[in-house]
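Why predict the complex rather than its parts? Because the way molecules touch one another can change local conformation, and only a joint prediction can capture that. The input here totals 619 residues.
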Amino acid sequence: MKTIYITLGFVIVALFQLFVPSYMIWEQEDVLLSGKVYKFKTKPIDPSDPFRGKYITLRFDINSFKTKDKVFIYGDKIKVYIKEDDEGFAKVVDVSKKKLNIKADYIVAKVTNTYDNTVTFKLPFDRFYMEESKAYDAEKAYFKVNRNNSKENVYALVYVKNGRSVLADVIIKGMSIKEYVENEHQ
Amino acid sequence: MSSKFNKELQTLIKDKVISPELAQKIEQYYATKDIGKSTKLFTIFGVLGALLIGSGVILMLAHNWDDFTKLTKTILAFTPLLIGQVLTGFSILKKKSSTWKEASGTFLFFAIGACISLISQIYNIPGTLGSFLVTWILLCLPLIYLLRSHAIVLFCIIFSTYYAVEVGYWQYRNSETPWLYFVFMLAVIPYYLQVLKKSISSNMITILNWILPASIFTVLGTFIGHNGHLGFVMYITLFGLLYNIGKLPVFEKLRVFRNGFLVIGSLGSVISLLFFTFRWIWDESSSRFNFDLQGFYVSSALFMLSAITLSFVIWKKGLKKVNLFQVAFILFWGIYFLLFTVEILPVVLINILVFALGVSAIKIGADKFNFKILNYGLLIVSVLIVCRFFDTGMSFVLRGILFVIVGLGFFLTNYMMLKKQQKIKKQLNDLQV
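Output of the joint prediction:
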């Protein structure tokens, strides 16, 4: 094959290699700039991923909904419709496999269980990446705060737009979890 | 070239064993041969260096520096990718050596992984490890053909295997089948065939001859579906396919240790068939006709592929050259699917099949004067007897006698073949004299 064709092929591949991560950024930035922000009560724990480093896994209070609909099975992708409650936290108003005609934002979640007219699901934004040394401390900080039974002190800030959702930060006692862990260190 | 070698050449000229011209030719031959060797070594070190740097970059970025702003982190994510692309583009455009292409390609491979993972970190993108690996492999597959890079082929095979294992085995309560693995392998195989055509005796072919069957063998389990027993059928068929691939005319002149298809196919067939020499596995598989469709389709597809490969080998080499290992999977299918209602007969037949495989290996070994194959056959027979030691009601005396016979068999066959070999060597020497 002539060098010019190989070079041309490489340029196309290289552009794709640049396009994929750039598109990932654009998708997230779009939600962060024009999406609506919600607060989700949560509990952080500390696992890690071999390639992408340390993160904390978030276990949300919102993880199930009572429904008479029995069409859900494990692994299904469902739309979880949310609104803000009186305290400003997100609450589920409905779940459905199809798009509903109601005035509320929705998040695409994965069904993990169904029992007794209740569907349990996993929200997609359950990973919050942190600096290597801080992930475990973040988990410890949560337990320290939670000891005083003040669960509302820990929540995730999530931007939602057209079913897409971006986790922007995790807040402990009104502070970003990164700052909170740093303050604890000092 | 060593000075000792030069000194030897001078001595040979001095003693008039060789002419000075011939000495010069020899010197030149070894000088050019050494150049090839050092380039190869340089390529290996180049790839190793790029591999270490690439992995180092991933690890450093995985630290997830909190002090950097989002923009700095994003620039940092793209920097290695751009450096890798520039280096690779340069080596293509300037028609650089394979060392350049291999090293820059390896670095680019890891830079792509680092870039996607860092973007995932910055924006807390929750995607699974499986989907991350898929994106990574898809973005790197074209590089195999653009750079003609051995290293990238190896990485693609290894990471495809990792993807399939992650999605198919390691996901909790997940019944996903990693179908994309097929796509990745289909993308890699044309490259393998090209290298095979160009340089069959290269080390790269040896590596690929082992890594390809090993990868397929590792991943096949993820395609089984919900019927475990069909998994055995699938694996026995796969080993039949691998063995028949190893028997293709193209591999004829390859030494056994360079032919991973043949070795894995043979060992796999014997080991998995040995399971079916036990009665309990047949008793347990009384429900074996509750097939799930996926497993059945995969098994049938494998059977068809194996049968086509076998037919091709017969067409090229003739029916007489076919050995029992090549048709063992067909015999197993016959016994498994046709005699499932009969109680003891299938167990007896499989025992006979494994015994016959052992004997056929002994015969192949004796015909080729190959002690390794001969002893492999003896080992198959011995293991079969040891297995029967556990689940039959034979008396201790009978078992003892059987062991003594096999032991004697080991000793006598080896001794006889050694004698025969010595006799032939002696005859050849006499002829030469």
